[in-house]
Amino acid sequence: MAYAVIRTGGKQYKVSEGDTLDVEKLDVEPGGKTQFDEVLLVASDGGVQIGAPVLKGASVTADVVDQVKADKVVAFKYRKRKGYHRTIGHRQKMTRVKITGIRG
Length: 104
Description:
The chain contains no helices and ten strands. It has 104 residues and is mostly beta strands. The strands form three sheets. Strands 2-1-5-6 form a four-stranded antiparallel β-sheet, with no helix packed on it. The protein has a four-stranded antiparallel β-sheet with strand order 3-10-7-4, with no helix packed on it. It has a two-stranded antiparallel sheet with strand order 8-9.
């Protein structure tokens, strides 16, 4: 089974064809296509290719399924004996993509 390691949004993901994953928000409409050019590693039946730091000419293509929000992250600030407490939170915007091809 072929897989690749890509970098997007400051994070690294191990992906194979058919995988669905949430990445940092991309400026692509749902139903569109995107391509990840920062491929760090490609493994297939022929062996493993490792980039230094990225592989030249390698890419991973994906279909954009949806624009979603991640689960809420809550930050609770508290100072003991001072009567201070604050609760703040946010939901990160994410893009759900389905991997359609690995070229390397």
